[in-house]
Amino acid sequence: MEKTNVAIVGLGTVGAGVARLLLDHGDRTARHAGRTLWLKKAVVRDLNKDRDVDLPEGVLTDSIQDVIDDPDIHVVAQLMGGLEPARSVMLELMEAGKDIVTANKALLAEHGAELFTRAQQLGRSIAFEAAVAGGIPIVANISQCLSANQILSLEGILNGTSNFIVSQMDEFGSDYGSVVAEAQRLGYAEADPAMDVDGTDAAQKLAILSHLAFGASVDWSEIPRVGIDGLDPDDLRYAKELGYRIKLLAVANLAEDGLELSVAPTLVRVGTPLAEVRDAFNAIRVQGDAVGPVFYHGLGAGQMPTASAVVADLIDTAVGRTQITFRTLRYFSNDQPPRVLLRDAETLVGRYYLRLPAANHPGTLAAIANVLSRHGISIASVIQHESSDGDRQRDPVPLVIMTHEATEGAASQATQEIESLSSVSGPVVRLRVKG
Amino acid sequence: MEKTNVAIVGLGTVGAGVARLLLDHGDRTARHAGRTLWLKKAVVRDLNKDRDVDLPEGVLTDSIQDVIDDPDIHVVAQLMGGLEPARSVMLELMEAGKDIVTANKALLAEHGAELFTRAQQLGRSIAFEAAVAGGIPIVANISQCLSANQILSLEGILNGTSNFIVSQMDEFGSDYGSVVAEAQRLGYAEADPAMDVDGTDAAQKLAILSHLAFGASVDWSEIPRVGIDGLDPDDLRYAKELGYRIKLLAVANLAEDGLELSVAPTLVRVGTPLAEVRDAFNAIRVQGDAVGPVFYHGLGAGQMPTASAVVADLIDTAVGRTQITFRTLRYFSNDQPPRVLLRDAETLVGRYYLRLPAANHPGTLAAIANVLSRHGISIASVIQHESSDGDRQRDPVPLVIMTHEATEGAASQATQEIESLSSVSGPVVRLRVKG
User: Where are the domains of chain A?
Assistant: First the structure.
């Protein structure tokens, strides 16, 4: 049987998983590739570190040059994290004639255009299924399986850490801080979870998916985004009372005059598939104009789900499918003008959930309703509970308002005005509502 | 821009949808294929029939020979239904050098080995995404996206007609016959819905998926199958009371000593994704050893979802991806020995729901429990209601029993023995319970 020599650069959690699939399950990869995928080199920084995998003699090296200089290595799983030296190493590997498989979403979000353009010039390919949604093969599905469609919208839970945290807060009524600590203990959150919980990671993934689905050239940092850091358990409770769960939702919606993108904690109606996505799972709902809605659900991170995506890409590259796709679609190339432009966030239309501390005296609700009305925002429902301990003097009282559809601009201005009312004694919590 | 000439054979519902995607959305297919997909011929039986699509001058023909004899047509969407002449036409087209895209699951289920072996010999390819689960790209997902995995199990709702009927019965408490009539009126069921409702269609799809996922060579008619024809609304009601819905579930499960396959109405716990699949939707849960569970949900039939799958295959074939996959995987070829064998249905283990008409006198439950116990089947729960109208003399009374795990053989024997008890006055309804 023919073989394709493969190298792994970076033997962290995912790298070790990839090595295990290649070493322990060669029959399986051979069956799907019609050839052996032979792990020839695995490049690490520290040769003495304990690894999660047993490598055959001679595979481990701390020199990337061993890969660059070996003309028999054709495909490299480039699994270093961060931007540098990951970017330079990827460029060097491509210059040396290697096709690349990567899981580095931040690198693609920051330097996609440069790397992909260079790859096109060099006749090389870059596969990146593992960069978005881990085990859910959303890249191949959008690029190939749904290629007969104009994608109309994407709605996704793309950050497993955030979803784990929100699910735990929802289920146990715990506060944000203690759930983050628990998530770190269980390995669902990193020591510094900022990129996960502040919406950065989801925005980077959404930028990549928007490029695949809509031909948009989006700088992820331009996507309006709100994270789940600082989410208040009270809001999860009120949402539940209203028949919703709160999820960190990444949304891309093709409107007539451009693409609407956002990442934000969003109230999603209980019983709909996205509301039922628990723990560290990811899910994506794609709406195509021919196929209708297609919903995907799976593990968005973790060693073996991500390794599964990397190895599928290695197989696709070894047999030549990746190269065809790469040549045809020219993703992230500088020579491809964007097919759609981003819409101004102020004009996005949606429903909103507002919670605010309202003075417990006559006229408060009227004043607030007045502000909303002036901005053309109508109220769908209101919750104001009598205090459970019968304390009629509690002041301020939490007031929850669900609106009908309004533009982001109107909602934002109305919120500011409500905050400046004398009968409102603190900031307004404002969340999006799906549907 | 280069072009690939395409023909459609059979301009029924799906064929017309494919023609529309090719004619009205050439920009989109060109973008994904890097070339124009040019609809050169559409072959029909009756030139004078009204069509759901406007074809340019010269495209419509009633002669298959126009396609066979045209060396510039390279890819054919072969969308004739039934076994003959669909089989002969496909062979002729391949002999003439055409690559094939088909949606004909029955043809693959019956003649897959012959057609695929011949295609290999001729250096041609057959793509068949549209043959299973319509708009859900499950063929590509199993064959390519999850190729790093040993698939451990598949659980699917693969027949939209059955799911529509069961969902309606569940929601409105209607009886089978009236819902079938309604489904026919709405176009969800054919005039003769036998293949859909008796489990044949689901078994044929399961046979194809089992080949892709497990390398099994399964004659679909060997798959133990029960349809939803004759499902009693009472059982849907009792299932709901127990916290379940009834779905026509197609299951493939890789056990140590072989592959377990079945198609049967099955109690699925409310709140799990498969239980929430409504109307004519399809869904498939794939469990891979690396990726974990991946869940797919979408429209399993209908003009445009199926056309979406056909056109994705046309694009994959025009760019050469299909040919690589076809050469590599050698699906359905006679030279590929099956990797797993079917397990004896008698040894399948599962939980069961039993409903039976029991005599309303002392000792009945004891006699039934006795039979179950002798077969090693323990009881998980029992429902026997007082009659709602206070009629203590009602006799027989419906008795519902949920069992713990038992083999199919034991459950089947116990059922027969229960039916022969003097205190049981009619047949036992026996349904599978998932999980």
Answer: 3-134+305-329, 147-299, 346-433
